Every structure is written in structure tokens, then in C-alpha cells.
Amino acid sequence: MAEETKDVAAQQEKAVAVVDYTKLPDLSKAEPEPLEMSGEYWTPEKEGETRRLFFVGLAEESVLDMETGENRPLLVVRFAENTGGTLHVVRNGSRRLVGIFEQFQNTIQPGDAFEVTYLGKRKNQNNQFKSDNWSVKRLILKK
């Protein structure tokens, strides 16, 4: 038991980054990234709603569970959207949409373009609930 405690303490020590704040650079001339980190959570309102998006990645976020009132992790897919030259982040945690990107994550790279269309709710095969249904198509950028 004492050995396990030492192992956990050693892992925690490695996980905590030690920063020498006296050696941090001046940020007055630093440029911000073009994308906001939090961005918009996309909740489609009607079937057929379509967006053209660049894949950024999968990320785990902490969300409030409405039933328990406790925070729980939620895997979301993050995109960048360019509308009229303005970039912003779009996120969605629909299990089916996230699952598509999980399934193909070995062939998808950040920056790949997709057309994502909300197809409405579809009854689940294993229970009485309905889940969001999606169409996801790669976009081919013409040069």
C-alpha cells in the first residue's frame, strides 16, 4: 500500500508543471491566434441545417449534468468556420457526430474541410430514445 502511495505521488509530481515565473517572456508584442478557444456550441434548430467547417480536433469538455447537477466530461468535435473572412470555433457534442470523427480519426487531419448537415432525430435501435442524425461529407478544395 505504501508503495502505491509513492507511485501516485510520483505521477502527480510529474503531472504538475513547474514554471519559473521570473523567466516568462514579455507578451506585449505577442499576436493572438485567429480562433477563440471556447467558440460557439452548435445546436441545430431544424433538419437540413448545413455548415461548411474545417476540422480542428476532438476535445473533452466539462459540462453540467442536468439530472445530477454535477460536472461530467463530454467529448466534443471542434471545427473552425470561415464566414466572410472571420474565423470562429464551432463545437458539438452529439454522440453520433463525435462518433463519426472518432471512427475516421486515423484518416482525418486538422484543417480537413467538411460539409456537416443535421438530418434530424432518429430513434435509437437499443432504447426508446432519439438521437441526432448527421450527414458528413468531405469537401474538396479546388485550387
Describe this protein's structure.
By secondary structure, the protein is an alpha+beta fold. It has helices at residues 2-15, 95-103, and strands at 40-41, 50-64, 71-83, 86-92, 113-123, 130-138. A six-stranded mixed β-sheet has the order 1-4-3-2-5-6.
Fold topology:
Blueprint: H1 2-15, E1 40-41, E2 50-64, E3 71-83, E4 86-92, H2 95-103, E5 113-123, E6 130-138
Parallel strand pairs: 1-4
Antiparallel strand pairs: 2-3, 2-5, 3-4, 5-6
Short recap of the structure:
Helices cover 16% and strands 40% of the residues. It is α+β, with helices and mostly antiparallel strands and 143 residues long. The chain has a single domain, classed as OB fold (Dihydrolipoamide Acetyltransferase, E2P).
